[in-house]
Amino acid sequence: MFVDQASVYVKAGDGGNGLVAYRREKYVPLGGPAGGDGGDGADIIFEVDEGLNTLMDFRYNRHFKAKRGENGMSKSQHGKNAAPLIISVPPGTTVIDEDTEEVIADLTSQGQQAVIVKGGRGGRGNTRFVTPRNPAPDVAENGEPGKERNIRVELKLIADVGLVGFPSVGKSTLLSVVSAAKPKIADYHFTTLAPNLGVIDTSDHRSFVMADLPGLIEGASEGVGLGHQFLRHVERTRVIVHVIDMASMEARDPYDDFQKINKELEEFDPMLLKRPQIIAANKMDMPGAEENLVAFKEKLTEDIPVYEISALTREGLRDILFAIADLLDAIPKIAPEIEDTDEEVVYRYQKEDAPFDITRDPDGAFVIYGAKVEKLFKMTNFSSDGAIRRFSRQLRGMGIDDELRKRGAKDGDTVRLLEYEFEFVE
After folding, report:
1. Kind and range of the H or E element at 148?
2. pTM of the complete model
């Protein structure tokens, strides 16, 4: 089964907790703190594997959770870092954050990797909090939570040539006779429900990959038919071959078909019209095809070569395959939008989010939220008095106490942070 889009939840591993411990060895009086740091949590990494050509693995597994780091140990031993979780994806995979629509990664070449979510760092043990004023601290951090996000994984097939055209114009038949591919062929619309790939070998020992894309119809760029689902696959192709039913078997005007397909390509992505194009005038063995071809060439204003073929009788196939191979030899090996990604990275200042914000619930309780304060809260071990005092100092340092007073907080008022409640004390 061909799967080219999936929504997935990914969660990197949390960092291991730091340890509160002290040296208790014979002949070592006042040994001091000896709690080790926790190990880092595992990253989730996508890696390109050329042996894959579908996102089938994501159909049955839509949740990926990496391992957490090992907790710190006594004698100042560092916990083990968790090994990254590497997930194989086919070339042409694009990863998008579903919440922000930001493109996280565009993976195209064998072995290419991208960190999708980063694991949390390990919490520090009590040896890290030694100061001259406090030589034996009883404070340690919990591990930092790993990043989590909902992502959309899309596959855009990487093929040299893409066959486009209305349903039943002969795209699948053409692919089946020029390659070893075995696409489904039948006398009804939308026989092809998924793109098919075939490797073409010309008689002069040149080869290229051709993709038979599901039939497009008017309105495809807006989601009509199967268009919006598969138009993205055209983006990766280097040459577009328009297959046109020149015999007009379904009483459509061939030139009108050509114009409508180009319009859908332009509305989906205007850059597609800049790709080299070839017109395959198919079904030339049928009655009326010659007359339609003459009328088609009279209307054609674009400088696009037209090749007369019959996929059924195999006439004209050698010429069009040589023309495609010649065109591929004259243009870059990869599609322009992939080539342009290797640009100089320019740093741009981005305003950081506020460390916290405060609102009030209907019952009058004050609610504190924000990425920074929530992260500090999760990394605090509330079973330790020292850690609680440290967390209180961090809140005061961030200005949360002063902000609560400005908003009218009084002694004994309820303050909420995540799912926990505290009492405001002056």
Report:
1. strand 148-155
2. 0.69
